[in-house]
Amino acid sequence: MPRSPEQNRAIREKRMRQILEATLHVYRERGYHGTEMGAIARRAGLGRGLIYYYFKDKQDVFISLIRWTLSGWKELLEEVTETDQPVAARLGEILKKTCALSLEYSDVSYFHQTFSRDIGVLFPDRVDEVVQLYEENLWRPVRTLIQEGVETGEIQVPLELGERFFFSVLFGAINYERMIEESDLDQWVSTALYGLVGRRE
């Protein structure tokens, strides 16, 4: 009996997820140049030919990996940014949730921190496409929230400075070489939002 379109879609999604998860593991072990399609196939438990059925080449696999992982990050951001909490509370939630996810999915955190530095070298013809993925899924949602805080007066620094500060704090905390421990998250977020001298009422 032939499969329904829904069954085919479910199988396709499962296979692509297997391939992308395998790519994350192989990348962490071998880096981009060492991540060969055969190694991805072996890690995924699939035939090499099946990888090419879903992806045109290795570059296509990695751009799909960027898109897939960032879409999950965007969902997290939207869950927080669309609430009616004060801007500072929403920024704090983003910091805590992002750090918790980075601890839980360390391969994803490692991938973005190391891979994003070399996009111009690895994908010279597709830099704009990849940068747009980061813009849509990460930068814009946070920038919009910070802009809201600036406009309402809750954030009292210029938008660009607030954005640079926020991401500096965030990426410093999820640095794969020395990540913030979950037990320190609340204190770290409070310090990031209200400063070393403590919150002023």
Structure description:
- The protein has 201 residues and is mostly helical.
- It has two domains: 55 residues, Orthogonal Bundle (Arc Repressor Mutant, subunit A); 138 residues, Orthogonal Bundle (Tetracycline Repressor, domain 2), CATH 1.10.357.
- Helix content is 76%, strand content 0%.
Order of helices and strands: HHHHHHHHHH
CATH superfamily of the largest domain: Tetracycline Repressor, domain 2
Shape: elongated
Strand content: under 5%
CATH fold-level assignment of the largest domain: Tetracycline Repressor, domain 2
Give the oligomeric state: single chain
CATH architecture title of the largest domain: Orthogonal Bundle
Instruction: Report the uncertain regions.
Output: none
**How many domain regions?**
2
Tally of helical runs: 10
Roughly how much helix do the residues carry, as a percent range?
over 70%
Overall average residue pLDDT: 89
Pfam families: TetR_N (PF00440)
Organism: Melghirimyces thermohalophilus
Protein name: Transcriptional regulator, TetR family
InterPro entries: Homeodomain-like_sf, HTH-type_TetR-like_transc_reg, HTH_TetR, Tet_transcr_reg_TetR-rel_C_sf
Quick take:
The chain has 201 residues and is mainly α. 76% of the residues lie in helices and 0% in strands.
Characteristic terms for this protein:
201 residues, mainly alpha, Arc Repressor Mutant, subunit A, Tetracycline Repressor, domain 2, 2 domains, 10 helices, 76% helix, DNA-binding, Transcriptional regulator, TetR family, transcription cis-regulatory region binding
